[in-house]
Structure formats: structure tokens, C-alpha cells
Amino acid sequence: MVRFVRCNALLSLALDSAGKGCRYIAKADTDDGVVKDMSEHMNSVHGVDVNGQRETILLSTKTHGS
Ligand SMILES: [Zn+2]
Known about the structure:
Helix content: 25-40%
Oligomer: single chain
Bound molecules: zinc ion
Strand order of the largest sheet: 2-1-3
Mean pLDDT: 89
Shape: globular
Low-confidence stretches: none
Strand content: 15-25%
Structural class: alpha+beta
Distance between the termini: 5 Å
């Protein structure tokens, strides 16, 4: 099962580097992977530190059946 979370589910007003609404989607096979992927994206693109917000990220995380 693939887990995925949309950036704009977490940061509703997030803008990407081009100034448009951010459509980034973090995907991974595990909770840890999706949290790590989104944390890196938030940090590098939005300058947001989501350390300690694992639960918040996972609440917005959905899964695809395999
Ligand atoms: Zn984003």
C-alpha cells in the first residue's frame, strides 16, 4: 500500500517556488517514509520545520490499495 499526503492538506496556503498553490504530494510505502518525504519538502520548499508534527502529517495521510 502506498501512503500519500498532499502538501496543501497540511499548509493550505502554501505556494510553490513559482508562486502557485503547492501541489506537491509525498508518497512512500511506510508512515516513516511519507513523514520523512513531506518533512524534507516542507523544509526545503517552504522553510517550515515539521519536526514533532508526525501525528499531524499522518492524520492527512491517505493510502492507495495495492
Ligand atoms: Zn509544498
